[in-house]
Amino acid sequence: MNLTTQLADGLAALGMALPDETQARLLQYLALIRKWNRVHNLTAMHEPEMILIRHLLDSLAILSHVPGFRIADVGSGAGLPGIPLALARPEWHVVLLESNHKKAVFLQQARIELELKNVEIVAERVENFRPASGFDTVISRAFSDLADFVKLAGHLVREDGGTLAAMKGVYPHEELAQLPRPFVVENVFTVAVPGLEAERHLVMIKHEG
């Protein structure tokens, strides 16, 4: 099965309809990751089929659960999940926050080549980033611990109802129990990624106050 068909089948399994142009840009993004990966080690995966499943479809699988129009992707790395979300939702404004210089350079290049007018790159540590206004959703798939995520990124959500969204593998029972106040779990969604047997969950966290 070629990548074009695999992507189309994956999107269909997610119940997602994206224009052909958007699907082509997603595959262009995959090609960029593979090209830069040879030098910059953006991901441990090299096979295009696995990058498609474990990165692109994994990112898009959470789309229906992400509220708002102003999104921050914290510790964006190779642009995941921010770039797939920005491609799928051109009306959103997506900020990719990445402190690693080489990865931030890749993100800038991806923004240019993919013509992502709705994407902004911020090469700064999350705890030092002080945006003029808060975000509807602050998302990450890079943080290993939920407590660290809310401590370092909690200030980025807008005060009147912003959400922290953490992409996790298995259900994080212990991490949820250690979540510091005033942050509380609003919901935990089980996410099914087409072609992936592993568990995926999306933890939605609110500021209670």
Automatic annotation (TrEMBL):
**Membrane-crossing segments per the record:** none
Principal location listed in the UniProt entry? cytoplasm
One Pfam entry name: GidB
EC id:
2.1.1.170
> Keywords in UniProt for this one?
Cytoplasm, Methyltransferase, rRNA processing, S-adenosyl-L-methionine, Transferase
MF (Gene Ontology): rRNA (guanine-N7-)-methyltransferase activity
Q: Does this UniProt record's set of keywords contain Transmembrane? A: no
Q: Which positions are tagged coiled coil? A: none
- What's the catalysed reaction? guanosine(527) in 16S rRNA + S-adenosyl-L-methionine = N(7)-methylguanosine(527) in 16S rRNA + S-adenosyl-L-homocysteine
Would you say which domain of life the source belongs to?
Answer: Bacteria
Any one cellular component term from GO for this entry? cytosol
**Protein name in UniProt:** Ribosomal RNA small subunit methyltransferase G
Species of origin: Nitrosospira lacus
Which gene name does the record give? rsmG
